[in-house]
Amino acid sequence: MKLIPKIILIGCGPHAKRVYIPALELLVKSRKVELKLVVDLIENEENIKSFLKEKSIDCETIFCHGFISQSLPSSLTDKLNNFCKENNINGVIIATEPLSHRAYAEWALKIGLNILMDKPFSSRNNCVSDLIQAKGIKEDFDFIHDLYIKNLAKYNNIFIINTQRRFHPCFDFVLEKINEIKDLTNCPVTSIEASHCDGQWRLPSEIVTQHYHPYNSGYGKASHSGYHIFDMVYRLYSKSVVQEKCADEINIVSSFIQPLGFLKQFDEDDYKRLFGNSKYDSVKKWSDDELYTILNDYGEMDLSTIVTLKKDNVAIGNITINLLHNGFARRTWLNPGDDLYKGNGRVKHEHYSIQQGPFQNIQIHSYQSKDKHNAMSDIEDYWGGNNHFDVLIYRNPLVCENDSSMQKFSMQEILNIYKLNVKDKLVTESVKHNIVQDFVRYLNNELSKDDIDSKIDDHQLPVKIMSGAYQSHILRNRDENPIIKYSFF
Fold first, then answer.
1. Are residues 321 and 466 in the same domain?
2. Could you tell me if residue 114 is inside a domain?
3. Distance CA 204, CA 178 (A)
4. pTM to 2 decimals?
């Protein structure tokens, strides 16, 4: 009789509740996997137990105190080790906040578990202001990657980073089009402009009090959804370049806007004019003068980063990355909603412009206009729809397939090309579910390592960009040379 893989989930916050738990529910029902344990912080015990009961999920729970060390507390390590040994655990999904990623990854690797871990690879307290902590993000990767390689011969386990755009069919389509021109012309990608906006309006006092996608731990947008974009620009370039033309060095320069800048953009008087004095006073916990002392060195809200690609010390391409929390949102209310993940007026805008010398420009436009993503009646891939994703392709007549130099493809048209049927849900969430399914299929020996993307080995450069962006910001604030240099490989 075939043994069913057994896994544990560490972290059961908004993202896990919306993505991991629904995906695992289906896999558990089909006898593909057993979810044996959920681990979270002790302050969330009542909420998570209630959630698991509501979902009729029968598994054990461990609740622990938060920790700030780079390794797990010994008491927690002992509990987890004993549980995994007694229950023959095969894998772990790590869905904690990023400050804990290194500690849980180290523990899991030492006992040979297969790992699916949320992005970013890691982050650090105060990495927006402390150069040692900013550098520590790359050091976390180096430490964990070395440990993974060291233990491969003993365990032969897999370590996947959940960057879902790598699994998104529309990004696969773009990569195919880029490679078509590379094969025809031998021209690599020469320029990338990337922009991502979360569309989150967080009121000044909430910047202090909220701990989901926080600023109050000294990190922000780059450590939240920003890592997805660092990863995607790397992928768009690296998957399209011939080896002899590939960059051997990157230079990174960045500029951050932190909450103090946000206060200067829209101050207390502006909020009162918009909502009324008494209404704003009812949610305001601190005045702007008080916030100016509290918010110093809080994490970044918006950032711009330029990555210069160099070969033999010659610049051969630029990647510009603009990442925003503070952008168009649909929030019109003063008290935050319960759902800070997909709710609370959050609207996503994402854009790429990819140049391939004189031969091709590909533009990706993904713009939502609604903040309600649950009640969907169709694919909603129109401009402003929940699944909006248009790809525009411009080609030089020398390499053009027809008389027109431009082609446009919608989300539905691309799904049709791949014979995929996704309705009534966000395609990004469908992709996230597929990642969990692939992880479980690997545990069931239905997929090989070669069949799975986004393994730890391929995340060194996105981590360098993220760490370098923080370092550059800190050095710029010190009026020192803000250029951070790393090898490409």
1. yes
2. yes
3. 43
4. 0.96
Check whether residue 105 and residue 207 sit in a common domain: no
Q: How many helices (H) and strands (E) does the chain have?
A: 16, 15
Residue after which a domain boundary falls, among 132, 162, 192: 162
Burial (CB < 10 A; 0-12, 13-18, 19+), residue 432, is buried
Distance CA 45, CA 51 (A): 10
Q: How far apart are CA 398 and CA 400, in angstroms?
A: 6
Q: What is the DSSP letter of 148?
A: H
Per-residue model confidence (pLDDT) at position 1: 61
Give mean pLDDT in consecutive 10-residue pieces for the chain, a chain of 489 residues: 91 93 95 97 96 94 91 96 98 96 98 97 97 98 98 94 96 97 96 96 95 92 96 95 94 98 96 97 96 96 98 98 96 87 87 98 96 81 93 95 87 94 81 94 96 96 98 98 97
User: Do residues 214 and 131 share a domain?
Assistant: no
Q: What is the CATH number of the domain that holds 379?
A: 3.30.360.10
By residue range, what is the domain housing residue 23?
6-162
The answer to whether the CB of 211 falls within 8 A of the CB of 13 is: no
Is 466 contained in some domain? Answer: yes
- Indicate left, alpha or beta for 7 from its phi (over 0: left) and psi (-120 to 50: alpha): beta
